[in-house]
Amino acid sequence: MKHVELRSCHVRMIGLGAFIIAASVCWTASNARADVAPRPDEAASLQVQEDQDEGSANASRRGNWSDDFESYANGSQMHGQGGWQGWDGSSGAGAFVTQVQNHTTGGLQSVDIRTASDLVYPFSGHDSGVWNLTVWQYVPGIMNAPNGQYFIVQKEYNDGGPYQWSIQMQVENDGTVHCDCGAADNGTPGVMWIADAWNLIEAEIDLDGDSVTLSYNGTVMGIYSWTAGVFGTDSGCPLGGCIGAIDLFAFSGTSVYYDDFELTLKVEDVPCEGDANGDGTVDPLDSGFVLARFGCEVGVGDPDCDAADQNGDGEVDPLDSGFVLARFGPCDY
Ligand SMILES: [Ca+2]
Ligand SMILES: [Ca+2]
Ligand SMILES: [Ca+2]
Known about the structure:
- There is one protein chain.
- The protein is mainly β.
- The chain has two domains: about 5-265, Jelly Rolls; about 280-330, Type 1 dockerin domain.
- It contains three helices and 20 strands.
- Strands 3, 5, 6, 8, 13, 14, 15 and 18 form an eight-stranded antiparallel sheet that branches.
- The relative contact order is 0.18.
- Bound molecules: calcium ion (CA) (3 copies).
């Protein structure tokens, strides 16, 4: 179990929802558990492909998601659709479905991020594993965004806060994309965006190893700590990190389009079957661990009892002893 505890402060101008503040920003990262409220809109669209593994202790680690904007009415407001919302729940910070651009094979639509847009997709339950996030971003050559257009992933997002930014990329009028990779304005050289074309943003987010690798059109722009992130308030997540929300922030710029979001679990932290005590080997100690917990109540907050239910049937009994016995040997991690 990893423990991370860091603290740092920055003073800078930051985009915060639909306005700018000069802020002295301090953050503390730790592996203290946060109570991240489930968000009722997560399964609201057919485009949301939840891949829950029912009955598994790892169910919350799953939650693959994609959105190609094809299931919404052309011209409709994304606030309140498909799990999307304006920043802090404000409909005024929403964005509209458009057929001006599309990336989806056989599709017609994307989302138009412009002027007041500050469109958020909150997640929940992404608290471990390695995740790939990809999205295509169309930048018109005539884009005019004097303060940049922002692609953001929040490690923490809650309406009204607290928030924490772990990815922030700025598309600039001068033809470059910059990132706050690991720190605000850390001087990372920008890469060129391709005008009047779809540009690929990729992030590999390793919640177990606490790192993120951020790329633009295949060029790695930064590899840095996910929990240290960029700036904001960290109220903690299990196992060193979580994925809070995507945020598409126009900052008063003209249109930039996004399409074909995909968030996919790449590596799951698969537990070793039979290793009830978690020491990396399945042996008589595990048999004893299970035996000592025969009859305990599973699923009420006792992690040792839950671990003793090795076959996942909700009881700790001789079937679990047999399950362990059949797997004696080293774990094959
Ligand atoms: Ca599309
Ligand atoms: Ca063991
Ligand atoms: Ca059992």
